[in-house]
Structures are given as C-alpha cells and as structure tokens.
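Consider the tokenized backbone below.
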C-alpha cells in the first residue's frame, strides 16, 4: 500500500466513524501510528521526526538549540548503529523506528510496574498481581457492584500463565509486557483471539455467527430500523469475515479480523529515510554489488551536521532542503 492509498483508507475510515449514530466497539488491533502528523516531505519533516524519535522525544527537540540537537542526535545515531560499524543500515533503522513505535507500550508497563511488584524483587508473581488487582474481591467475594470478579480473575490467570514463558508463575518485565499488551506478541495472539471469541460467542458454541457479530457492536434498543453502518457490517461479515462461507467465524477467521497484518509503517519509513539519504548523495556509501543492504550516514555523524545528511533527519532547521513556497 502506498502512502496516498493509506491516507485514503484512513480518511474513509474516519468517514465511517463520523457517520455512526451509536458508539461502535472496535475489536480490531491496529499498529500504533508512527506519528499523527501528515507525511508530506514537501511541507515539513514532522512525520519523519516523530517516526525517528517518537512523538514525545521529537517535541523536546523543538525546544533545543541547533547545537544541542546535533549533540543529542549524535548520541541517538550511536544507539541506532547497533553493530557499531559506523553505518546505519535500513535494518537497524527499522528496528529503531519499531522501538519508537512501541514506546507507549513500554511506558505503560513502567508506569504499572511499581504498583504490582510489592516486594520489589524485580519480578511480578501471579500472587502479587492477584493480590493487588483482586485483593478487595478476595476479602469480600460477594460484592454487589455487578462485576464478575471470579470470571475476570480466572481469565487474567490464564493470560498470565500464557505470558509466563518459563512457567515459574512469575513475570519478568518482558513477560509482564506480553500479559498487559498481548496483541504485541506473536506467542500471545491465540489468547487474544480466544478472549475476543469468548466475549462475542454468546451461545458458547465456539463460533461467532452473524447475530453474535452484530450484537457485539450494536444493540437494537427497540429501534425498528437498523442504521446504515450495521447493514454494511452485515455485508462485511458475509463478504469478508466468513471466508469459507459456512455462516460463522472460526478461530482463523476471527484472527484475520482482529489482528490484520497491517501495512508495516516502520519498514516503509526506514526505506523512505534511506532513499531520502540516497537522493541527497551526500555522506552515503555506494550500494555494494550483490544486494548488500542500503547504507547511510557513515561515521562519525554526517547526518547530524546541518545540510550534510539526509534532509529528513536534519533537526536543525524547520524546512531543511526544500525551497519555500
Ligand atoms: C497475598 O495475600 C495473601 C492474603 O492476604 C497473603 O497471605 C500473601 O502473602 C500475599 N502474597 C503476596 C505475594 O503478596
Ligand atoms: Ca515481586
Ligand atoms: Ca516467568
Ligand atoms: Ca456462537
Ligand atoms: Ca466461517
């Protein structure tokens, strides 16, 4: 998918949302955006900067003097160049951008970590998590606030055990991240699908039929006529969700729906930045024969000195190499 196609998709999906009279539950897990800015290098490089640094970090760059941002960038380029050969490859760039993209995931785990690691040993045991989350319920197993804590706890325990790769009932930071953000981990995808199916499959037959699918996103509330978007969803179910046309969604079909293999923003952006740096023909090693990876920014940090590297990575000017319009 090209960027214009992507933008078209995005604006179409906005149209859908704004035309919905009732709130629709979104079951689909999307990759987080690299930036909420428009990607148009003819205007500015805000998108590239957000992608490269993460939006928060990019914001702090706006407040730095050119000298300060050069110094900061120098340190960052060092970190991107993981094998320390003085070149930043497309692969290294992609890994870096992915990390920036997932930053909100790691931030949310950091925020919650202290709360659960009661004995501060650097791990979160299932007992710790259960006590913190369900302590009040365990003390008084019969609260009348309408929540089924028992069911929630059983579900959490199942997910915790799935995230706990080595089965010691204790989560490392990585395992706890998989527990809190299972959609980010391949080995957790089955449980994401399972939990979603359990939510929607009201008759418990292990499948999602058309009425269950619609019932999850729309409640009639006595309305005689269904809104247009619900009719569209019915068509979606028949045309796209129920691939083998047996009238219901099985595990695989549900997985395709809620965990679509999205357009890889990180890979596209890495390629774009490398291409951008090749266009400038400054400080770029010629591509090696035999399909060696495209490289950019030979050592020490030419990308950092204003005007001498890929323009998209020049943080020292607002609109680096493009003529003012
Ligand atoms: C959890 O709470 C129970 C009951 O209060 C207590 O006996 C147990 O030691 C607690 N476990 C942890 C890991 O804090
Ligand atoms: Ca602990
Ligand atoms: Ca473990
Ligand atoms: Ca069912
Ligand atoms: Ca089917």
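A designed sequence for it:
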């Amino acid at each position: 998918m090209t960027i214009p196609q992507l933008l078209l998709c995005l604006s179409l999906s906005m149209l859908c949302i704004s035309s919905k009279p009732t709130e629709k539950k979104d079951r689909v897990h999307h990759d987080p955006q690299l930036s909420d800015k428009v990607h148009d290098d003819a205007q500015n490089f805000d998108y590239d900067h957000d992608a490269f640094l993460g939006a928060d970090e990019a914001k702090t760059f706006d407040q730095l003097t050119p000298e300060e941002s050069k110094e900061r960038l120098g340190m960052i380029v060092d970190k991107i160049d993981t094998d320390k050969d003085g070149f930043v490859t497309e692969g290294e760039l992609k890994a870096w951008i992915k990390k920036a993209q997932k930053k909100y995931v790691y931030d949310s785990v950091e925020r919650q970590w202290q709360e659960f690691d009661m004995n501060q040993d650097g791990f979160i045991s299932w007992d710790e998590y259960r006590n913190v989350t369900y302590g009040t319920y365990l003390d008084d197993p019969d609260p009348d606030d309408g929540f089924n804590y028992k069911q929630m706890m059983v579900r959490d325990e199942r997910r915790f055990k799935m995230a706990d790769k080595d089965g010691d009932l204790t989560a490392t930071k990585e395992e706890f991240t998989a527990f809190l953000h299972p959609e980010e981990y391949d080995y957790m995808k089955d449980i994401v699908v399972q939990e979603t199916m359990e939510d929607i499959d009201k008759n418990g037959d292990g499948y999602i039929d058309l009425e269950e699918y619609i019932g999850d996103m729309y409640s009639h509330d006595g309305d005689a006529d269904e809104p247009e978007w619900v009719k569209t969803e019915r068509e979606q179910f028949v045309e796209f969700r129920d691939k083998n046309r047996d009238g219901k969604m099985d595990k695989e079909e549900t997985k395709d729906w809620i965990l679509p293999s999205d357009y890889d923003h990180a890979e596209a952006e890495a390629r774009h930045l490398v291409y951008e740096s090749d266009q400038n023909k400054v400080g770029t090693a010629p591509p090696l024969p035999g399909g060696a990876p495209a490289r950019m920014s030979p050592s020490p940090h030419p990308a950092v000195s204003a005007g001498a590297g890929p323009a998209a990575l020049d943080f020292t000017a607002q609109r680096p190499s493009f003529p003012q319009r």
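The first helix runs from residue 3 to 18.
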